[in-house]
Specification:
The protein is α+β, with helices and mostly antiparallel strands. It has helices at 4-23, 34-47, 108-115, 131-138, 150-154, 168-177, 201-206, 219-227, and strands at residues 50-52, 62-64, 69-75, 79-82, 88-94, 100-107, 127-130, 157-159, 165-167, 182-184, 231-237, 244-250.
Length: 259
Amino acid sequence: MVHPVIAAGLAKIIAAITEMNAAFPHRKFTMDGRLVGDIGEIVAELEYDLTADKVSRSVHDAVTSDGRHVQVKAGFGETLTFGKIPEYYLGLKLFPDGSHREIYNGPGHIIYQHFKKTRQNFGENLQSVSQATLMRLSETVPDDQRIEKRFALCDKRIDLRSGGYFTAAQLVEYIRTTGRNYITQGQQVCNLEQHTKPNSLDVWLRKLAANPNTKQADSVVIGHLLETGAFQYGLVRCPDSGHSVKGLRLTSEQSLGDR
């Protein structure tokens, strides 16, 4: 996924770097350092089941929902860096258009074991490693030792309280068909035919439930949806009443705004 804000921001940064290089040809301005690292962490948080640290740590940059610690490395070139051995290492290649490619996803010790015999002080000080080698090593990582992608979470089944189920991916696609980037929660204790919020999550879920005449958009369902990382919970404008009400907004389409 290409996040529109990242893509737009990179375009501006690259344009500025190009202008600086043209104005001062005796200096070389490049995309590197802390800025690239921060962009990589943002991409990782958007795409993977992890939360970036608010306070920097010496080895790790993020933690997964099940408590695994992850070091995130990103770059626009053909190498990434590896320093102290992290519990998990997530390596990403970034592209100027805002897209990215996964280079390595797995335990840090696999990288360490590969290089320790041929690299002096490997795992002790910061060294560059080729992305090609990291990709080959990543292919050896078992699936259960990878950091899960958020879109994979979106495909997991979410059971409804009265029977039936759905996936977050189905809900994302439905929301996009409405021309909005959000859906109201709209839970009501009533039969489906008496429901006053036809454009709500509650009504959409009832049509998938074994019993459509019971409330479905409860806090448990909302919790499962938030765990996917595809949604944010807050106030949105109700298309049925025009009022501000609680609902879910797509995290990947923030720039669309309320419609």
